[in-house]
UniProtKB/TrEMBL annotation:
<protein>
    <recommendedName>
        <fullName>Formylmethanofuran dehydrogenase subunit E domain-containing protein</fullName>
    </recommendedName>
</protein>
<dbReference type="InterPro" id="IPR003814">
    <property type="entry name" value="FmdEsu_dom"/>
</dbReference>
<feature type="domain" description="Formylmethanofuran dehydrogenase subunit E">
    <location>
        <begin position="24"/>
        <end position="145"/>
    </location>
</feature>
<dbReference type="Pfam" id="PF02663">
    <property type="entry name" value="FmdE"/>
</dbReference>
<dbReference type="InterPro" id="IPR053194">
    <property type="entry name" value="tRNA_methyltr_O"/>
</dbReference>
Length: 149
């Protein structure tokens, strides 16, 4: 699908490396990776059109959980500039994606946290970075559960 025939920069790949995530966000942590993967999943689940998606990010609204928002923006293309992403303060971490066609999904944290202790044998910040790097390659179903709404 071509959104605008004459535009060259609207359909660029949304594949980012861990280095690019860290460059955008300032460091590499679990929540930017989780948000990125959730966003990428939602974009692919629907029709790869970031203009047709709207994201609601549910979290505490404070770091480190709020870092999820940066990842969702990068992965889905839903941005504050386009006004198609919002934060809803919540004690639970999840992201709801609604599509212009009326479809919606809710992505909730998966079982990935059970692997966190595997990375606790080094400096705390390095452990978080190593865990985030491992999360980048985990299967979607380990990172989050998908609920069709």
């Amino acid at each position: 699908m071509k959104w605008h025939e004459s535009c060259r920069y609207m359909e660029l790949s949304r594949e980012y490396t861990v280095e690019e995530l860290a460059k955008f966000h300032g460091h590499l942590g679990p929540f930017i990776v989780l948000g990125y993967r959730m966003g990428r999943f939602a974009l692919q689940h629907f029709d790869n059109d970031p203009f047709a998606l709207f994201a609601t990010v549910y979290c505490s609204g404070k770091p480190p959980e709020s870092c999820l928002i940066d990842g969702v923006q990068i992965g889905s293309g839903c941005t504050f500039g386009k006004r198609n992403i919002e934060l809803s303060v919540s004690p639970h971490i999840s992201v709801m994606f609604r599509h212009a066609d009326g479809g919606a999904i809710l992505l909730k944290q998966g079982s990935y946290l059970s692997r966190r202790s595997e990375f606790d044998n080094v400096d705390k910040e390095l452990a978080l970075e190593n865990f985030a790097e491992a999360m980048y390659s985990m299967p979607d179903q380990e990172l989050f559960k998908v609920e069709e709404l």
